[in-house]
Amino acid sequence: MYRWLKLDYLRPAQLIVLFYVGATLISVCLLSLPFALKEGVHWSFVDVLFTAVSAISVTGLSVISTVDTFSTAGIFILMFILQFGGIGIMTLGTFFWLMIGKKIGLRERQLISTDQNQTHMSGLVRLMKQILTLIITIELIGALVLGTYFLKYFDTWQEAYLQGLFASVSATTNAGFDITGQSLIPFAQDYFVQTINIILLTLGAIGFPVLIEVKEFLKKRQTSIPFRFSLYTKLTSVTFFSLMFGGALLIFLLELPHFFADKAWHESLFYSLFQSSTTRNGGLATMDVSEFTIPTLLVICLLMFIGASPSSVGGGIRTTTFAVIVLLIIAFARGQKSIKVFKREIDEEDVRKSVVVTFLAMFICFVAFIILTATEPFSFMQIAFEISSAFGTTGLSMGITSDLSTVGKIVIIALMFIGRIGILSFIFLFHIKEKDTHYRYPKERIIVG
Amino acid sequence: MYRWLKLDYLRPAQLIVLFYVGATLISVCLLSLPFALKEGVHWSFVDVLFTAVSAISVTGLSVISTVDTFSTAGIFILMFILQFGGIGIMTLGTFFWLMIGKKIGLRERQLISTDQNQTHMSGLVRLMKQILTLIITIELIGALVLGTYFLKYFDTWQEAYLQGLFASVSATTNAGFDITGQSLIPFAQDYFVQTINIILLTLGAIGFPVLIEVKEFLKKRQTSIPFRFSLYTKLTSVTFFSLMFGGALLIFLLELPHFFADKAWHESLFYSLFQSSTTRNGGLATMDVSEFTIPTLLVICLLMFIGASPSSVGGGIRTTTFAVIVLLIIAFARGQKSIKVFKREIDEEDVRKSVVVTFLAMFICFVAFIILTATEPFSFMQIAFEISSAFGTTGLSMGITSDLSTVGKIVIIALMFIGRIGILSFIFLFHIKEKDTHYRYPKERIIVG
Ligand SMILES: [K+]
Ligand SMILES: [K+]
């Protein structure tokens, strides 16, 4: 067992930031390799940086056309970066979940090696192997299914399977990149491709801890050992699917008199469902989202801002954070002091975290909005959409990404980065460790609201 | 002593809502009186309702031109409604502050009569008399000063003193109505009028409890009895003036290359200071705010959304609510569990209230925004500005108020009403009283952010 690096000496937040800064630098180098580009393609440093951050944060916003810029080798490099970014954050996120989860099952704890309450790098490596195996398995199955199905669309089998592989990787890691040149719009009528994509997107965005628990559950069902899902898994899953189906319903109702006016019910259904699912963090689209009306676009902004589950490949404030805020308001209106859900109480510390994360996220997006309204010539709607998409690492766009000014691109790069590492890591990066306050002051009531 | 109504049997929130619904109905009747209007003026019911709610909530948004619609009698009726609205909310707000404030000074408690912990209507009446005396005194001094000064602007002394009285009442109650026909724009170069207005606006918006305490302080300074300002007074005053001067600085810096480019430094200074002060709840303006650039307008939106002190004539989420949120984020980043400020700790309950109020306020404004983008032909900036102004009961506008559709007017009416009664009253209105939860569940940690 190699314990060359005790994690206790490196704070989690710093580890995550370190990982992403390192990974971004490597990605910039890889994407600058001459053989990664098609002949005659030249791009500016800020565009390379933008693509690197977008890829490593699996956002999918793009200032360039992937298919026109990259050679086949470049496409494989890009897939590698997406893979690395997606699996990296899943591993780190899950790892810290297991580290704090003193109360979770022994079997899950065994995923990371611990002795005398010290967590070691070896646990991290073992966990990464587990996640890697699971994700690659999902991706390969996806690639096989999609590639085989694509034989009817493409001339050669090489092209079909390359498209299938890229589509599967992009969907599973929720990267949102495409090599069709126009996202999933060519498959707007192909419900099979869309269904497979929704499944892959969901497996990537629901969070690794949920996948582990479901696996455990399926194993135990064959025996008579009772299995209890963790509060985290229940809460994040319910929120995830509520947002997906609630979002689809809202999009459907809002667009019924507009975009869906001349569409069949099954078309409208799939357009709604796919566009709602994709905000939960895929970033692929089966239509040009600008065709939606403003109210729908605002709802989509909110959905992207909320984002995916923690410890998943997605960004945003995360599903559980949103759920805690909603539960807090309900509990308050009912006059309850603690938040009770699924016969458990939510820890005060997690409530505080959720509140702070949400406010800071809104503040950061508001400042970004002020800057972009000053530097960019686009409409408020386009800018708000781009910001939510970047912060949520979603990757949907109303088409302004490549026309952003350099300042605009840098702001979006920063948002993708913060959205990716998460607001908490961002706070703890500037965490001033003070002697915790053992002194107390008397409490005094004030008037608020 | 008349104790025909024990307040304990009527919940505070219900009392406030009852008061405002009743006052709105009376205002609608008063404003419909034929002699209140100039000859030949006809207006729709929704416009009467809009004006009544705007007046009783001392917002100042207007779908009609006050000076072209009302006769002199009508102007006095309007002043009476502003007076009633402004003093009403100040009384009720202060009253509930005194009711919860078990720890505040005996002398302040004596303001409301209590026996055996029962609070009676008589205390409310006595408090209202105190507030009425104070406000009327301030208004009369203001009217005298402004009226005398206005002699140089107007032809007759009657006109000068009517203008002075209306300006003083409108400023002190932070009503934002004007009978100049163009707010304070005629006085854009008159720093004396502006200074008097800023003072009156501040006295109205800083909150009655602060005024009481300052009065107590001045009294005790002559003796040797030590006086301690309450946490509430310290917190709200510091926040109030920080927002005022911080806002002015931000406006100044943002507009330096734009609106202030060709202005003298003292002009820019007064434009900044006045427009910042007015967001703290006056709603008067010395310029057409649409001339500001987008980033400045967004900052003004935020300032209006925050609003004035609780127990004042102003609306919004209130200064203390905003202060608690900011302190919460700072405490969290420092790793402190409790919020310490001015050598006191903020009660957990007040923190919860602040958080819930802010989230609900944002949610309500977001829904209003979605509705208005669907029903109105105006820009996002104009709509966002109108919504912040209505919710903050500020009354500034980019000029779209009178062109709103009927649906739009109703949404703005609702926002002014909610902004006025406050989010907390709004929640408690729907408060489902449950048996408080003596049962507990085990706590379980989750992942957020
Ligand atoms: K994405
Ligand atoms: K006002």
Automatic annotation (TrEMBL), chains A, B:
InterPro entries: Cat_transpt (IPR003445)
Mode of membrane association: Multi-pass membrane protein
Keyword terms, alphabetized: Cell membrane, Ion transport, Membrane, Transmembrane, Transmembrane helix, Transport
Superkingdom of source: Bacteria
Pfam families xref list: TrkH (PF02386)
Subcellular location(s) of the protein: Cell membrane
Transmembrane residue ranges: 12-33, 45-67, 73-100, 131-154, 191-212, 232-254, 315-333, 354-374, 410-432
UniProt name for this protein: TrkH family potassium uptake protein
Lineage, top ranks: Bacteria, Bacillati, Bacillota, Bacilli, Bacillales
